[in-house]
Design a protein that fits this description.
By secondary structure, the chain is an alpha+beta fold. The chain has helices at residues 3-10, 52-57, 76-92; strands at residues 26-31, 37-43, 64-68.
């Protein structure tokens, strides 16, 4: 997945403007050791800790995961910086 595609999903830009308030308000981004975005999983409500959250985080083993909301990374540069942080996290751990 490209940075632009992930940015679009995170910020719900694939949803028409009038319907964005009903779009998912959370997303988990999975990044591998090379900085490739493996997946973006969106959800409307925070997963419940009793199993669902654990299953959610174990979907892509060996990746760094971070949770975001629409608008948190308002530009491609900010998202690119976060991906760079994920690469550093892979190198440290």
């Amino acid at each position: 997945m490209t940075l632009e595609q992930a940015f679009e999903l995170i910020n719900n830009l694939d949803v028409r403007e009038p319907l964005r308030k009903f779009a998912p308000q959370w997303a988990t981004v999975f990044v591998d050791a090379t900085g490739k975005i493996v997946d973006v999983i969106r959800f409307k409500q925070w997963p419940k800790p009793s199993g669902t959250l654990h299953e959610h985080f174990n979907q892509h083993p060996g990746t760094v995961k971070f949770i975001t909301q629409p608008g948190l990374y308002g530009s491609l540069d900010k998202l690119r910086e976060k991906i760079a942080d994920c690469i550093i996290a892979h190198q440290k751990y």
